[in-house]
Amino acid sequence: MDIEKALNAFAALSQSTRLDVFRLLIKAGEIGMTAGDISDTLGVRQNTMSANLSILSRADLIRSKREGRGIRYFADMDGMRGLLAFLMEDCCGGRPELCQPVINELACAC
Questions:
Q1: How are strands ordered across the β-sheet holding 70-75?
Q2: 39 is in which domain, residue-wise?
Q3: Which of 49, 56, 92, 103 has the highest CB neighbour count under 10 A?
């Protein structure tokens, strides 16, 4: 991940509702959640939620899948892994391979 993508991801997560959405979708795992379910769970109006989901999607932190007339959202684990790798790429004296077990543990292949 390059610095521009990382900054975009950090900007997306710097707002409390978007951070809550991202954490909720991580918890939902491979089942994901519909936009309506996310809105209801977090008590956020659907039009506000739609804007937040768009921002998270553009930051490559979530992905979506159309289901009939609805859309189901999922945490993008590859995007999360990329962000974690970016944060840790210079760790351990510039030897990122030493940090790889930590990255693997934090970003499970759920």
A1: 33-34, 70-75, 62-67
A2: 3-106
A3: 56
Tell me if 35 sits within 8 A of 46, measured CB to CB: yes
Identity of the residue numbered 60: D
Helices (H), the chain: 3-13, 16-28, 35-42, 46-58, 77-88, 91-94, 100-106
Domain count, the chain: 1
Q: Looking at residue 101, which CATH number applies to its domain?
A: 1.10.10.10
The reported pTM is 0.84
Which strand (E) or helix (H) includes residue 72? strand 70-75
Tens of pLDDT, residues 18-63: 999 999 999 999 999 999 999 999 999 999 999 999 999 999 999 9
